[in-house]
Amino acid sequence: MAEIYKKPEKVEKMEKKLERVSVVALRKMIGKMGVENLFTPFATFPTKIHFQTQADEEQVVLFMRQHLIVNLPWVIVAIFLFTLPSVFSFFPPFAMLPSSYQFVITLGWYTFAFGYSLAKLMGWFFNIYIVTDERIVDVDFKNIFFRKISTAKIDEIQDINVQSSGAFETFFGYGSVFIQTAAEVPEFEFIAISYPDRVGKILNQMIDQEEQEKIEGRVK
Amino acid sequence: MGILESLTFLLFVKVLVVILLFVYLVFAMLMMRQIVAMTRAVAMQDDFIIRIIGILHFVMALIVWVISLFLQTR
Q1: How do the domains of chain B map onto residue ranges?
Q2: pTM, two decimal places
Q3: ipTM at complex level
């Protein structure tokens, strides 16, 4: 009976540890940017971020969220909502109610204000843009009832537009990157991200690298 | 008559509060489930923190709803 060759475990582990040539080149080209923590809006080569459809050897190159400053409007609204119960007692129908009712309504209001803040935080936190050495991933989280995850291969990218407009965007240094693709999703929008020019440049470099790999026959 | 009027008014307020808080409880549960689904889709370092916040929000909504059930209508 013919024996099937099985790679020794050690060799398999070693192979997994060894980065592909393309990733090493990207690492050299891009370098380390941003910080790696739970609420980071921008990080290059994060080690502790993985997505569901990520392949074993696939390496996350860029991890992006919208710039932190985009949270300012809802933070102001949340502060307003949290301070509102202090004026409830001046509102006659509320003042008429027994204290137990006032307590429950106030507590309910704080829960609502907390929920509003959490929903808005989730909207920012789970709206993620990922660039791997293989593809781009756009995780859209518009509200708690809608989420969409779109992907396109790097070699399917046709056009990249970087846009930064307005005083706010210029002052805080963020902008948007629009990516036209030949994939099922024709356009990917990386909205209000930090370093949009750098991201545009990195994507262009990755496209060049992908083309080079095709020529050299190193396509995965 | 005055007592009856006040009783009806409080009952109306209680029913309204209980219904609204129940709807909110369902919303909080959906939010909690969505957080779990999203943290499964994209796993991050220390993402249990956001899951805990979601659970806390649901528990808070549940507590407020339960308290509202025991409101006196007279």
Answers
A1: 2-69
A2: 0.84
A3: 0.89
* Amino acid (1-letter code) at residue B73: T
In terms of residue numbers, what domain contains A102? 72-122
Give per-residue pLDDT as tens, B42-56.
998 888 999 999 999
Residue B34 is encoded by which pair of tokens?
Answer: 């969505």
**Does one domain contain both A54 and A105?**
no
Instruction: Choose the closest CB to B47 out of A38, A51, A118.
Output: A38
Which of A54, A88, A122 terminates a domain? The answer is A122
User: Would you tell me which residues 11-50 of chain B have a C-beta closer than 8 angstroms to some C-beta of chain A?
Assistant: 13-14, 17, 20-21, 24, 27-28, 30-31, 34-35, 37-38, 40-47, 49-50
In a domain, A186, yes or no: yes
Give the separation between CA B27 and CA B49, rounded to whole angstroms.
20
Q: Give the 3-state secondary structure of A94-116.
A: HHHCCHHHHHHHHHHHHHHHHHH
To the nearest whole Å, the CA of B25 is away from the closest chain A CA by 10
Determine, yes or no, domain membership for A93: yes
Query: CB–CB of B34 and A147 under 8 A?
Result: yes
Q: Please report, for the domain that includes residue A211, its CATH number.
A: 2.30.29
